Amino acid sequence: MSSLTGTVAFFDLGGTLASVALSPDGDRIADLTVYADVPEVLADLRRRGARGGIVSDPGPVPHEEVDRALEEAGLRSLLDPDLLVYDRKDSPGVFEQAVARAGAVDRALFVGEDAGERAHALRAGLLVAPHPRLAVAVLEGDHLRYLRVSVPPAHAGEDWRAALGDLPLLPLHVTGRTGTTVHAIGTTSAAARLGDLGLEVDRLGAEDEPLTADLYLLRDDRRVDSGFLVPDGDRRPPSATAPAAPAVLAATDDGLLVAVPAGRSVEAFHGGATRHGHDLKLSPIAWPAGADRTGTGLAAAPAAAVPATVTPAEREVLDAGIRPEHLTEHLARYTGAAPARGGGAVITSRHVRHPDNRAAVTALVADLARIGRGRFLVRRHAFPHEGRRPENVEAEFPGRGLDGVVLVTAHMDSTGARQPDYRPEADPAPGADDDASGVAGVLAAAEVFGTLDGASGAPRRTVRFVLFNAEEQGLVGSSAYARDQARLGTPIVAVLQMDMIGWDSGSGRTFELHAGFSGSQAVQQRSLALARTVAALVAQVSPALPAPQLYPHDGEVDPGEARSDHHSFQAVGYPACLVSEDLFAGPGPSAPPADMNPQYHLPSDVSIDAGYAADIARLVTAAAWVTATR
C-alpha cells in the first residue's frame, strides 16, 4: 500500500459523497444518505495517511445544518473537522482557502462532478478528479484520459465487466448492439492494464483532458442526412471554428464524441437540423454498466407485462380527473400565460440559465404540495451543471403493502436554441410542447392518484412524481437523479417518462412508446414489458388514440434510444420507457412519417393540442396505477 502522508483530499458533498435531498423551501437538508462505497474510499485514504475534507456550496442551507446532517449520517467522523469548507465554488478563492486550512501539504486534491469547479481548483494549485473512485490514483500521480474500451467479438459473451470493475476506471456510456463498448475515464495505468487483459483500448483526446472538460455525444450532424460518400457530409459540430470550440474526440455511428471545456455550454453547438434529444452528457454510471437491477433483488419488475386491466370505477376516476381543461390550466402557469403558484411569478422561460427556471422549481414545489395535501413528501434534488446548481423536484407518495417504486416523470426545463442569436439568460422559451405538456401530464397524474388511492384502499407501491431539470443540456438532471437512486439501491420497478405529448397535426393521432436500450438486453426486455402494459390500456382509458408505435420493432434500433430522461434509468439498470407524440418515422418501412412539431426549440412553442395530450397523460397515469397496484 502506497503512502499518502502529507496529502489532503477535499470532496464535494451532494452527488459525490452522498445523496442530499432538500426541503421544499430549499433551506434545510431533508435527508443525507452516504453512498455505500464512500466510507471505504475515505477509510482507505486515511489508512494511507491522507486527510479528508469537504469543499461544498450549501446555498441557503445554514452551515451548522450541514454539520448536523454529516454527523447524523456518520460521515463527519471520517473527515478532518478542520477541513470542512462551505462557500461558493465560482472562483479559485474557496480552494485556496481550503488549502490554507490544511497547512503545509505535499499535494491537495479536489474531487467533484462539475468541470467548472474542477477548473477553479486546478487554478488554485490542487489536483482534481471527477469521482472518488479515482482519488487515490490521482494523488499517487497517475493521469486521466478518455478511453473507449471494446470487447473483441469472440469474447462478447464472457464475464468481462468484473475485470473492469477492479481498475481505476469510471464508466460513462455503454453502447454497441451487444453492449460491449464502454466509454470511460480511466488512468493511464488502467488503459495499459486493459490492453494486457486482451481488450481493445482507444485513447481519446489528450492526457488529463477529463480534468476540466465534460464528454458529450452530439447527434444528427449533416453526415446523417447526406449519406455515404456524399461530399456534403459534415461531421463538425456547429460553431466548430469558433474560439474555444469543443474537441471532437471520435466520430461514431451514434454521433460525435465531444469534449466541452469548462466555461462553455453544449448548447452553443446546437445544429439547425438536430432532432429530439440530440445531445447526451456522458456522466458516471453505476458499475457494472448496464447491469439489470431488476434481476438482482433490488426491484421486482416482471419480464412480462403487468396484467393491464382497469376496473370500471378506476376508469371513471381517470376519465373525470384528466381532461383537456386540466392540462390547459397546468400548462398556462409554466408557459407565461398565467401566473405560477408559489409566488405568482410569470414564467417566460424554464431554461436552466434563465432566472425563471428557479421560479418554475418553486412553483412545482407549491403545486405538488397542494396536490398532495400532506400525503406527499416533496423535496428538491440539487446537482451541479455548468457552474450552477439546478434542482429536480420530487413528490413521493409512500407505499402501502407492496414493495418497489414507480416513477411518473417529465422534464421541466425548456429552450429556444433553434432561434438565431438566442440568448438563454434573457430570451423567452415557453416550451409548451417541450416539455410543459409532460409537466402538465405529471401534475394531472399526481392529482388523480390521490383520488384513485382514496377510492380503492388497495395495497400499493410507492409512487414518485419527478420533474427533471437540464434535460435539454444532455439529460443532466435525470442522470444525476438516476445515478443517485442506483447508488442508494432504490428498488425502482418502472419509470414512465412523458416528453412532448402535445403536438398532433395529422388525422391519425399517432403516438410512440420507446423502450430500446442496446446496453443490456435484459433491461430492454423489462422496459418493453412496461411499454406493452401502456399499450394494452389504450382501448380501455383513451380509446380515441390508436395503438401506439412501439419501439424497438423487428430488430430495428429504437430511434428514441438515449433521447429522453428514461435512458438515464436504463443506463443504471432500471426498466423505463418514453411516451411521446410521433417524433420519428416508423417503425417499419410502411409506417407513417414523423409528425415533428415545427416549433421545436423555438420561442414560438406556445400551445398544444390539449385533448390529445390529455389522452396520453390519462394512459400513462393508468399504466402507473396498474404497475403500482398489481
From TrEMBL:
<dbReference type="InterPro" id="IPR007484">
    <property type="entry name" value="Peptidase_M28"/>
</dbReference>
<dbReference type="GO" id="GO:0006508">
    <property type="term" value="P:proteolysis"/>
</dbReference>
<dbReference type="GO" id="GO:0008235">
    <property type="term" value="F:metalloexopeptidase activity"/>
</dbReference>
<dbReference type="InterPro" id="IPR045175">
    <property type="entry name" value="M28_fam"/>
</dbReference>
<dbReference type="InterPro" id="IPR036412">
    <property type="entry name" value="HAD-like_sf"/>
</dbReference>
<dbReference type="Pfam" id="PF04389">
    <property type="entry name" value="Peptidase_M28"/>
</dbReference>
<protein>
    <submittedName>
        <fullName>Peptidase family M28</fullName>
    </submittedName>
</protein>
<feature type="region of interest" description="Disordered">
    <location>
        <begin position="414"/>
        <end position="435"/>
    </location>
</feature>
<feature type="domain" description="Peptidase M28">
    <location>
        <begin position="392"/>
        <end position="606"/>
    </location>
</feature>
<dbReference type="InterPro" id="IPR023214">
    <property type="entry name" value="HAD_sf"/>
</dbReference>
